[in-house]
Amino acid sequence: MQLDEQMKCWNHAAVKVLDIRRIVMEAGAQLSSYTLPANGFIYTIRGSAVLQLDGQTYKAERFYMLHGAKGSSLDIQTNEDFEYILLYYRAFLAFPSYRKKWLLAQPEVAPFSLQYGFAPSSPLGLLRYLDELEGAWIQSGSLDLLHTKSLFYQFIHEMMVQLAEQEIKTELADPVKQTLRYIENHYREQVTLDFLAEQFNYSSRHLSMQFKRQTGHSPIDYLIQTRIAKARNLLLRSDATLSEIAAEVGYSDVYYFSRIFKKHVGISPIQYQRKMREEARTEDRPLVISESSIGRRWKSGYIDYENHYQYIDGGSTPMKRRKTSSSMIMVALLSITMLLAACSSGTATTPAAGEGTGASSNNSSTAVSSDTGSQTNKDNETRTVSTVKGDVVVPANPKRVVVLYLQGDVVALGIKPIATSEVFKGAAYKSELEGVNSLGTWFEPNPEAVIDLDPDLIIVPSEETYTLLKDIAPTVYIPYEKMTTEERLQSIASIFGKEQEAETLINNLNSKVEESKQTLADAGILDKTVSIVEGGLKGMVVVESKQYGRGSQALYEYLGMKAPEVVQKKIDVVSEAGGSNLSMEVLPEYIGDYVFRSVYEGADNLTDDPIWSSIPAVKEGRLIEIDFDFFYYSDIYSINKQIDFVVEKLLAAPRAQ
């Protein structure tokens, strides 16, 4: 972008000053990988430092001006006491006609994303405006804030004059380089395509296209590859457990991590580690295997949403000792970031097409009320569905349905979608979805792939996926983690006008439960204790919640069976997913008359472990292995099949005395 184009942008811009303050860094202090939360100017007042903005190095002496775009990564290394003014602002093209003209000519360029640094020819003129800006900002009265906007335009005018006089070269911030750098620094955290686009002031589509053009991969693909590379290194060079490594690279559930790892590497993490260690032994480089802790609490189990273990955030952050002489620097910058986030969230917006307006977004985390339902407009062949996002108008008879994660309930209602999120191969309803397009993990669907499918209805399980897809087609958000299985089914049924079918499914399930309980009671099994475990030699998780999955709904909620007293006490009070990670030494105290072990590909073989083999339920043949895939889901279709499996296996096992 040429400087004259930038001047034209400022002539058509509406601006808001977000923050201005002075920051002092002591000699030798440094700031590393700070992400600018908005477009900003850095103007040095005294001292010197080496500044890096998105990898571009600037040597800043007294009176040096640097401009960076939102999302740019800033590093500062001081040589002496260093003082600077930090000014954040937001600007956008205010006039629709000019904005349209700009988008047609340069759709991939954010108009105020130039990056440049220079030594002003008249530094005190710029300083005068910044001093006045700071003074007016501190007063913060309505008239003072209006004054800041006036001063800001004068500051911009003075700076543009000096840029033109010196013919300073400006360049656009490269969103691909910014994205690469951000992923490298933040791969442990929750990262989505929409989040990255928002960070760098680009649309999701254009960022994805540019990224793929330059790297050959989508941003999310690159994120996964980065995580896998970090995991391979940890598997090879550390004694960390698999769950610790999974958390460190951004996956809070070890089993989902294992699947992703195998998909990209070809073998499971355990097999990879064993292979690498065998090669290391061959080269006489033994590795030491650490012991597991005893009785460590597994916080929140594996799942955030009900029976959903794929956390998209989380992961521990290593503590790095950095040379710094003033913690106030980070406190100041953190406060700025929080302030800007507050400003952003407070901005009024107009709901997009398909987004409900009848409910505040603040209520989006509450459960759907019992009167949630739908109303059909026969004239227009549409149905109005009441949701936590307000009323959403959907087709009365949708033909091209996309559903994420909630596909089991949809299938149970007799509906075959055109696309769903990934379904594990052992899922009870896997065969019902033959030929259906897969959109990848439920929390990272590709919007472009969804657009290509031209859906007429989308059903999503989270706020994030709702925001991502709501502009493509009528989108219904089901906050299923706040619902029972029956409530969730009824809510989904109301979208399709299949309330009667849902009632029939629920009645049939209740009848099956009563018959199954009677069958187990007649066999002398219903009053026996049952444990559910998952894990291996280094530690075993004991399920302590009805909401954990892995058969907990079928056994503890529907069949009403009890766990050993030490576990049942927690089940009685825990309202969300939870379990304890125990060592083999204390595990026997938590095992009931029957034990169900969740297994998966690569799970440890416990046959030769003396403690495990000595547990009465295991020793006497009352160990029942359950497939992780099959018991992962908690929809009504899966629950039906799980109850059948549980009852059959309990009846076939030797009787507990």
Describe this structure in words.
There is one protein chain. Helix content is 39%, strand content 19%. The chain contains 22 helices and 24 strands. It is α+β, with helices and mostly antiparallel strands. A 6-stranded antiparallel β-sheet has the order 1-8-3-6-9-10, sandwiched between helices. α5 (175-186) runs parallel beside α8 (219-237), α17 packs parallel to α22 and α18 (552-558) crosses α22 (636-652). 39% of the residues are buried.
Task: Compile the SSE list and pairings.
Blueprint: H1 3-11, E1 13-25, E2 30-35, E3 39-46, E4 49-53, E5 56-60, E6 65-68, E7 73-78, E8 82-93, H2 96-105, E9 114-118, H3 123-139, H4 142-166, E10 171-172, H5 175-186, H6 193-199, H7 204-215, H8 219-237, H9 242-248, H10 254-265, H11 269-282, E11 296-298, H12 328-345, E12 374-377, E13 382-387, E14 390-395, E15 401-403, H13 407-412, E16 419-420, E17 437-438, H14 447-453, E18 457-460, H15 463-469, E19 475-477, H16 485-496, H17 499-522, E20 530-536, E21 539-543, H18 552-558, H19 565-571, E22 579-582, E23 594-599, H20 610-614, H21 616-619, E24 623-627, H22 636-652
Parallel strand pairs: 15-16, 15-18, 16-17, 18-19, 20-23, 23-24
Antiparallel strand pairs: 1-8, 2-7, 3-6, 3-8, 4-5, 4-7, 6-9, 9-10, 11-22, 12-13, 13-14, 20-21, 21-22
Helix pairs in contact: 3-4, 5-8, 16-17, 17-22, 18-22
Order of strands across the biggest sheet?
1-8-3-6-9-10
Number of strands: 24
Query: Assembly state here?
Result: single chain
Low-confidence stretches: 284-332, 334-339, 341-372
- Give a short account of the largest sheet: 6 strands, antiparallel
Radius of gyration: 29 Å
- Measured between the Cα atoms of the first and last residue, the distance is 81 Å
- SS content category: alpha+beta
Annotation field: number of helices: 22
Relative strand content:
15-25%
